[in-house]
Amino acid sequence: MEKIYTSTRSHNIKVSSKQAILEGLSKDGGLYVYDDIDKIHIDLDKIIKSSYKENAYDILSKLLPDYTKEELIDSISNAYSHFPDEEVTPVKKVGNIFVLELFKGPTSAFKDVALCLLPWLMSKALKDSNKKALILTATSGDTGKAALNGFKDVENTKICVFYPHNKVSAIQYKQMACQLGSNVYVYAVEGNFDDAQSGVKKIFTDEKVNDLANKHNLLLTSANSINIGRLVPQIVYYFESYKYLVNNNFIKLGDKVSFSVPTGNFGDVLAGYYAYLMGLPVKYFYVASDENNVLTDFINTGIYDRNREFKQTISPSMDILISSNLERLLYYLSDKDDKYISSLMNDLATSGRYQISEKMLKKLQSLFKADYVTQSETKEEIKQVFEESHYLLDTHSAIGYKVARKERDIIVALATASPYKFSIDVLASLGYKESDEFKAMEKLSEVSTRPIPTNLASLNNAEILHKDVISKEDMLKTVEKIING
Ligand SMILES: *Cc1c(COP(=O)(O)O)cnc(C)c1O
Asked: Which residues on neighbouring strands pair with residue 221, listed in sequence order?
């Protein structure tokens, strides 16, 4: 196996793509990256003539070279049989903006696109290693359900999800608390997403827990977007949206387009950057944030400063102050300088703040633009787009859409969740008050004259199976208990 992945914080660490997927996070706390990704060239001419699954194979085979052709094709066809459309991620023209619908999967969030595939990639890598895996995942709401759904009852795996107590939507809560499966564990953690995420990162680097897991022949790994197995499948839909634009004569092959991405942990937009490094013609990436606008400030000033109030908003999946995947972008922008990235991340850990060099900031700003949208603006945007185009955006996608209005040329706005997942707030944006999430869903369906996705409608009668609320200090103990069976 070719050891093509290295850590953002140390070039001495080298692993194969299967190992990188099995480990999730590098042992030094860094993230796995493929140094030569910018030397890969995806043939656009072939992309526009091929199906989603064929394009997925083309891209995955270049970034995950340890997998055999059969393994990849099997994984891809299993994963995307859970999507209703052959297109997987359809594009709709809404006003002058092209909306890339990423929420057609089994849990109605864009995370499904990667999390339907990751369990297949993981179990094939596990087969080679003769181990079992315990997947630990922190979620701001959507990753949790998508990961639980993807990994439930998958052979040789257990999955444990931590979500911030009372900080996910009522639907997100029900989706996770009602999860069936013999290998699933779900916990609410007192704190916010950043607490849950740093708790999980601590467990990965804790020697004692790792030794204990080893004794049980168990690997600890992650289904968060720190895992390259999460990122790689997301690259595909950037190319797919480009295919749509060319094939419908909105652009010519080779023309540049922009993307507006509702951002939290910086995974989705980073996948777009990877597509760009592999040859996708991109003018700008617009990083769209909610009131937790740490990335807006960073991209505009070069100073990342998480020392600010955490705001709980109507866009909970974007309520994040530490955007983990930014580390990968900085790695490439610094010309793969592991020492420099280590020192920045050390600054972040000790003071909650770092500043990049002037040269790097210029490079960053030549491709990335950033803005944020307040909660009242988000609601206004949902209403306006519905009135103008009879199209319903959810509370995350509306942020991307509003920021996309800044671009005069062709722009794709990524729609990351179904509006029914955030029914109360979407409905309120249209001027209707309803505090019951399921009644709100029905009303929304009536107003929009579109059906509720069946996975969400069926939650109303589902039984709550997971009730535990734990402190962030108890996360480690909880994982030890799961390991000990
Ligand atoms: C996770 C999520 C985001 C943010 O994506 P990142 O990859 O974390 O930047 C945006 N919208 C929704 C609905 C999400 O679930």
From this structure: 135
Separation between Cα atoms, residue 378 and residue 136, nearest integer Å = 32
Residue-wise DSSP of 230-277: HHHHHHHHHHHHHHHHHHTTSS-TT--EEEEEE-SSSHHHHHHHHHHH
State which ligand 1 atom lies nearest to the alpha carbon of 141.
15
Q: Is the pTM of this model over 0.70?
A: yes
* Interatomic CA distance for residues 462 and 146, integer angstroms: 17
Kindly state the helix (H) or strand (E) to which residue 53 belongs, with its residue range. helix 52-63
Percentage of residues of the chain with pLDDT beyond 70: 100
pLDDT tens, residue by residue, 256-283 = 999 999 999 999 999 999 999 999 999 9
Which member of 18, 104, 111, 145 is catalytic? 111
Calculate the CA 309 to chain-centre distance.
23
pLDDT (tens digit, 9 = 90+) per residue, 68-116? 999 999 999 999 988 988 889 999 999 999 999 999 999 999 999 999 9
| Three-state secondary-structure class, residue 91 | strand
What is the mean predicted confidence (pLDDT) over 357-373? 98
DSSP bridge partners of 163: 188
Q: Which residues of 16-41 are buried (b: 16+ CB within 10 A; e: fewer)?
A: bbbbbbbbbbbeebbbbbbeebeeee
The atom of ligand 1 lying closest to the CA of 142 is 15
- CB atoms under 10 Å from CB of 422, counted, come to 32
Q: Give residue ranges with CB within 6 A of ligand 1.
A: 109, 111, 142, 225, 262-268, 317-318, 396, 416-417
Total length of the chain:
485
What are the angstrom distances between the C-alpha of 85 and each of 82, 172, 177?
Answer: 9, 24, 28
Of 185, 183, 243, 229, nearest in space to 52 by CA: 243
Strand partners, 287: 261, 370
Report the candidate in 257, 267, 310, 313 with the shortest Cα–Cα distance to residue 287.
267
What pLDDT was estimated at residue 201?
87
**Nearest of 454, 431, 14, 26 to residue 220 by alpha carbon:** 26
Mutate to test the pocket of ligand 1, among 298, 396, 423, 425 (most ligand atoms within 8 A of CB): 396
Active site annotation includes 472: no
